[in-house]
Amino acid sequence: MNDINTKAAAVGHIPSGLFIVCARDKKSRIIDGYLASWVQQVSFDPLMISLAVKPGRPAYGHIINGEIFTVNIIGDHDNTYIDHFWSGYDPKKNPFDALAIKEGKAGGCILEVAKSAIECRRHSGMKPGDHDIIVAEVLNSYVLNNEARPLVHVRKSGMTY
User: Fold this and answer.
1) What is the pLDDT of residues 85-95, one digit of tens each?
2) pLDDT given for residue 1 in this prediction
3) 3-state secondary structure the chain
4) Range of the domain at 21
5) Domains of the chain: total
6) Suppose 148 and one of 18, 33, 75, 139 were both cysteines; which one would form an S-S bond, judging by CB atoms 3.0 to 4.6 Å apart?
7) Closest Cα partner for 35 from 48, 17, 50, 49?
């Protein structure tokens, strides 16, 4: 019988992209977000994606409440900005303040350094474990760097990020 660490070893080998998921507070206009690796397309018609997000993460409340959020796809051309998000950040030192951002058609936060960005709105969700699974409708998408390849992440274990 496999113990949890043995089972988690192969699960960690499932490749995923790296993304900065962000949303803007409607009242204060402050941008909040986090580094994500569990994002996947789930439907062609309508075009939808899913993401796993742990309750309490930055932007979680905005996403759950059905506000516009953006999945910024990190490319291999420039990944220097992900350091600010890797272990979380002090809310008093918001890393979005130092990043060039433009507003999408639906009001989402597009990081100009990203490879691509997808504006979304929560469609549905479920809570299968310690993370919520959010299914979101794709409202708009933007290709910012056509030559860059999406950055891929493989974990050492399925028990940690």
Assistant:
1) 887 777 778 88
2) 58
3) CCCHHHHHHHHCCCCEECEEEEEECCCCCCEEEEEECCEEEEECCCCEEEEEECCCCCCHHHHHCCCCEEEEECECCCCHHHHHHHCCCCCCCCHHHHCCEEECCCCCEEECCCCEEEEEEEEEEECCCCCEEEEEEEEEEEECCCCCCECEECCCCCCCC
4) 13-153
5) 1
6) 75
7) 17
Within 8 A by CB and 6+ apart from 8, the residues are 157, 158, 159
pLDDT per residue as tens digits for the range 96-141 = 888 999 999 999 999 999 999 999 999 999 999 999 999 999 999 9
Model pLDDT, residue 123: 98
- What is the CATH number for 29? 2.30.110.10
The position carrying tokens 């051309």 is 77
CB 137 within 8 A of CB 125: no
Whether the predicted pLDDT of 2 surpasses 80: no
- Distance between CA atoms of residues 63 and 92, nearest Å: 21
| 128, part of any domain | yes
